[in-house]
Amino acid sequence: MLRVAVPNKGALSEAASSMLAEAGYRQRRDSRELVLVDPENEIEFFFLRPRDIAVYVGSGTLDVGITGRDLFLDAQVKAEELMQLGFGASTFRFAGPVGDFDALEQLEGKRLATSYEGLLKDYLAERGITASVVRLDGAVESSVRLGVADAIADVVETGNTLRAAGMEIFGDPILQSEAVLIGRAGEAPVGLDVLLRRLQGVLVARQYVMMDYDVRKDLVDAAAALTPGLESPTVSPLRDSEWVAVRSMVRRNQTNRIMDELYELGARAILVSTIHACRI
Ligand SMILES: Nc1ncnc2c1ncn2[C@@H]1O[C@H](COP(=O)(O)OP(=O)(O)OP(=O)(O)O)[C@@H](O)[C@H]1O
Ligand SMILES: O=P(O)(O)OC[C@H]1O[C@H](OP(=O)(O)OP(=O)(O)O)[C@H](O)[C@@H]1O
Ligand SMILES: [Mg+2]
């Protein structure tokens, strides 16, 4: 059985479980369940803290796991990113009291609080900055006001937490993070190819819609240029031999722009439907 680690709590937990459910796997009903076996799909899910998932995968105890890129890099384990999962996006950034800092170099000799010690130390070392790193478990934004640090490096999503603490970001983003599937380099465990294809199918089904329309035969090349699809659009004859029906996959976030352009071109009966599942 393929052994998969899944976040049990926190920012990534719900989205990870719903992605796996969408990929056709059993998911737990009770958030206290720690292990779930899905014998039909020959897979076993272990619900763990996302920070620990990299450790289990890196040691080879579990085959693959879902965690944040920032947590994975922070753990400094022997594993690699196998797939980006399209949720849990965040940015890891420096922040300090409003007006105190505006460049990275000003951190020289300062005290920096973070929950991501490994990630931060690597980043500072690569840039030749010597600062002392204070490792905290959470609520890092309070550390400056409470006097244990001069600045922080932390996950920023909306920036609301920073503002409430009287802080502002400075410097370039340290890292763009999102949820990723991680695994060990080398020979792929049995069943991993199926998991990857299924997750890829969920990503595509979420990112694309199916678009159908009718268009006059002489306009089909122009229409196909707007909706090239993945390989090539399907063009089918209609009873009226002057017209054809076209079917193509279109990026969800482009749907309305493309419908407008097709309509302008002369296409009619433009229909959009969601893709429930797919294998590309
Ligand atoms: N708004 C957010 N706050 C915290 N982490 C976020 C946010 N958005 C995305 N993430 C990502 O979620 C992961 C952190 O997961 P974690 O389980 O620690 O979440 P959490 O909600 O902060 O949980 P905890 O309450 O234990 O701190 C990181 O990969 C982080 O980049
Ligand atoms: O930019 P924002 O949208 O405000 O989100 C970012 C904040 O959310 C997270 O904290 P969390 O709620 O996980 O608490 P924690 O610091 O105890 O982990 C993170 O550590 C930041 O503090
Ligand atoms: Mg947190």
Q: What can you see in these coordinates?
A:
The chain is an alpha/beta fold and 280 residues long. It has three domains: 100 residues, D-Maltodextrin-Binding Protein, domain 2 (3-Layer(aba) Sandwich); 87 residues, D-Maltodextrin-Binding Protein, domain 2, CATH 3.40.190.10; 67 residues, Alpha-Beta Plaits (2-Layer Sandwich). It has eight helices and 15 strands. The chain has a six-stranded mixed sheet, with helices on both faces. A hairpin with a 5-residue loop joins strand 13 and strand 14. It is globular. The chain starts with a strand and ends in a 6-residue tail after the last strand. 32% of the residues are buried. The mean pLDDT is 97. The protein binds adenosine-5'-triphosphate, 1-O-pyrophosphono-5-O-phosphono-alpha-D-ribofuranose and magnesium ion.
Present the secondary structure layout:
Elements: E1 2-7, H1 13-22, E2 35-38, E3 43-48, H2 50-59, E4 64-68, H3 69-75, E5 80-84, E6 90-97, E7 111-114, H4 117-126, E8 132-135, E9 151-156, H5 160-164, E10 167-177, E11 179-183, H6 192-207, E12 208-216, H7 220-226, E13 234-237, E14 243-251, H8 255-265, E15 268-274
Parallel strand pairs: 1-3, 1-4, 7-8, 7-9
Antiparallel strand pairs: 2-3, 4-11, 5-11, 6-9, 6-10, 12-14, 12-15, 13-14
Helix pairs in contact: 3-4
This protein binds adenosine-5'-triphosphate, 1-O-pyrophosphono-5-O-phosphono-alpha-D-ribofuranose and magnesium ion.
